[in-house]
Amino acid sequence: MIEARSEANQRFFAGEAERIAQLSLRLAERFVSGGRLLAIGASAQDQSDAHHVAVEFVHPVIVGKRALPALALRADQLALLADPGDAVIAFGTRASGPPGCLTIGFAPGAAEWVFEPPTDDPFIRQELIETLYHVLWETVHVFLDHLGSSRSGAGDSGFLYPFLEGGAADLDAVLRDVSASVLLKAREVADLRERTIGDGEDVMRVAAAVRERLDAGGKLLAFGNGGSATDAMDVVADFEAAGRRALDLSADSAILTALANDVGPEVLFQRQIIAHGRPGDVALALSTSGGSANILAALAEARRRGLETVAIVGYDGGRIAAEGLADHVIVAPSEYIPRIQEAQATAYHLLCELVAAGTSRGVEVAQT
Questions:
Q1: How far is Cα 213 from Cα 284, in angstroms, rounded to an integer?
Q2: Alpha-carbon span 194 to 4, nearest angstrom
Q3: Do 198-367 and 2-190 have the same topology in CATH?
Q4: Most buried of 37, 166, 252, 358, CB within 10 angstroms?
Q5: Which of 18, 62, 70 is nearest to 154 (CA)?
Q6: H/E stretch holding 351
Q7: Residues 6 or more apart from 264 whose CB is under 8 A from it?
Q8: Exposed (0-12), middle (13-18) or buried (19+): which is 63, by Cβ within 10 Å?
Q9: What homologous superfamily is domain 198-367 in, according to CATH?
Q10: Tens digit of each residue's pLDDT (9 = 90 or more) over 14-72
């Protein structure tokens, strides 16, 4: 499974690095002119990507970088809300909008800019597409800095792009260097996937535990913050598509805003575990840091109530790994959030595949 991902990853980004750099420049030009990035998705999984790309652009994690206007919409909202200067990225459907919109899609004929992953595996396709829009988000800031002042170098993103720190660079040189950085990022995520999954034993153990609970009538409760909330949306959609009972605790904006406003953000998921969690269920926490207060509170509540607890985390595992706050912990050992999230997607996709296939069959598939 990891080899298939590595091979598809290498083919996809080797073939598309130059076009990704060119698209990043086109997006930067749109943002400089006041345009927005509008994202739409067809299926529940596609909608999770639409929300993911929007939150990444609006809530930057590069220190000193500007928040960029992005919004996840229903497809039927585009006719009312899209402007000619906007860009539209469409997942699982055709990108549309008024004349003048820049459009991005992932199937033949879906958009002006089409990037088609070289695989029919839906999980691998989604992982490659996630890396692509993360890379677009990362590299668009390089062009924004360049368009804002050609003498400013990389500015606050210099730690990511040291090749711009020498001073002024012509646009062709920037495009070449950004293309090279796309290939570097693709290699980084391939390496991180391998280190996250390892020999597969941890994922198979988690799959066996989850399948046992679900086979006995339990349900999966998934939750996370920000980009991890969109991952919770995605994993629940995947389990539901496989005929499994699953609930996304990050989904209900009325519940989340009521709790955050009246009590505090630390109880967002804990209160829902109290409401929905039953002995025999599984609580799946998604966190890049492994230390968010509302994640820790939810895991503690889940344990008190007899739920199986699983955490997919980044960095060194944070407090969850250090203090053993979950029954099962899968760590994507990196300090860079986009790569962490990409490796985490591989982890929960494999988890879903192994649960759906059956534990014994899953072990056979993983070993093959």
A1: 13
A2: 11
A3: yes
A4: 37
A5: 62
A6: helix 337-357
A7: none
A8: exposed
A9: Glucose-6-phosphate isomerase like protein; domain 1 (3.40.50.10490)
A10: 999 999 999 999 999 999 999 999 999 999 999 999 999 999 999 876 556 789 999 99
Could you identify the residue written with the tokens 């998934």? 222
Please check whether residue 5 is in contact with residue 193, taking contact to mean a CB–CB distance below 8 angstroms.
Answer: yes
DSSP 159: T
pLDDT digits (tens, 9 = 90+) for 98-112: 999 999 999 999 999
State the burial class of residue 217 (Cβ atoms within 10 Å of its Cβ: 0-12, 13-18, 19+).
exposed
How far apart, in whole angstroms, are the C-alpha atoms of residue 41 and residue 92?
Answer: 6
Burial class, 2, CB count within 10 angstroms (exposed 0-12 / middle 13-18 / buried 19+):
middle
Q: Kindly list the domain boundaries of the chain, sorted by start residue.
A: 2-190, 198-367
Residue 145: other Cβ atoms inside 10 A: 23
Residue 99 token pair: 């004349």
Helix, strand or coil, per DSSP, at residue 235: helix
How far is the C-alpha of 214 from the C-alpha of 243, rounded, in Å?
10
* CATH of 2-190 among 3.50.50.60, 3.40.50.10490, 3.10.20.30, 2.140.10.10: 3.40.50.10490
The answer to whether the beta carbons of residues 342 and 127 sit under 8 Å apart is yes
- CA–CA dist 94, 91 (Å, integer): 8
Q: Which SS3 state, helix, strand or coil, does residue 46 take?
A: helix
**Residue type at 4?**
A
Q: How distant is the alpha carbon of residue 340 from its chain centre?
A: 9
Instruction: Quote the strand ranges of the chain, DSSP E.
Output: 37-41, 70-72, 87-91, 102-105, 113-114, 220-224, 246-248, 282-287, 308-313, 328-331
Go through the chain and tell me how many residues it has.
368
Q: Copy the structure tokens of residue 363.
A: 């072990």
| The residue to which tokens 């982890």 are assigned | 347
For residue 313, the 8-state DSSP code is: E
pTM to 2 decimals?
Answer: 0.90
Q: What is the mean pLDDT of residues 334-352?
A: 97
Interatomic CA distance for residues 317 and 297, integer angstroms: 16
What's the CA gap between 48 and 275, in Å, rounded? 24
Closest to 30 measured CA to CA, from 112, 128, 125: 112
Q: Specify whether the CB–CB gap between 68 and 31 falls below 8 A.
A: yes
